Amino acid sequence: MRLREESATTFNIMPYLIFITIFPVFIGFFLRFPKLIIEIKEKKQWSFDWIKVVAIGIPSLYIAMIPILSIYFGLNLLFAKEFLLLGDTTFTSTAGIVFGYVLLDSLKK
C-alpha cells in the first residue's frame, strides 16, 4: 500500500509495478519450495519439463508482466487496456504465483 501511495504522490509508478509483478512470483516459489527440498534429497537424475513451462509458464508470465510491458515500454499489448482500466491486480498476481510455482515444479528428479 505504501508503494501505491508513494507512486500516486510522486508520479513514479515503476517501483509499484515491479513489486506487483515480482512479489507474486516469489510467493509461487515459496509455495513449491518445500516439495523441491524433498525432491532434492532423492538421488535421481534432474530433468526439466519444457512442455509445462511453455504451455503454462510463458502465458502466465505474459499476464503477470502486462503492467510493466504496457507502461514502461509503451506497448499496446493484448488485454493490457482491460487490466489497466480495472486497476485490479488480482489476475496479474494470480498469474505471477502460477508462474513461480510452475517454474519450480518443472524441475523434476
From TrEMBL:
Membrane in keyword set: yes
The keyword Transmembrane is annotated on this UniProt entry: yes
Keyword line: Membrane, Transmembrane, Transmembrane helix
TM annotation in the entry: 13-33, 53-77, 83-104
Protein name per UniProt: Uncharacterized protein
